[in-house]
Amino acid sequence: MPIALEGILRIEHSPRLDGSRMRVVFVARPVDDTQPLSEPNEHSLEARYVTLEELVALDLRGREVAFWFNRAQAGPVFPLDVMQPEGEPQ
Fold this sequence. Notes:
Elements: E1 3-16, E2 19-30, H1 52-57, H2 64-74
Antiparallel strand pairs: 1-2
């Protein structure tokens, strides 16, 4: 499904002896009417558009999805340009 990135909710960094891990949580919106994944694949068992009320009723593995859903609506949402390549001018 084509999306447009709109902002950043959080950047997480975990230094480790065998390398570092970085996770960026983005806010994105669909750019057209393409439907989300309907068949399982290596990344997901299912995808669909839901409201917050529908989300809390789902049997999810954990509460992280609901946390980010709420955070995207309540903010803060940071602009995409807070993430720059190292050494780029300000």
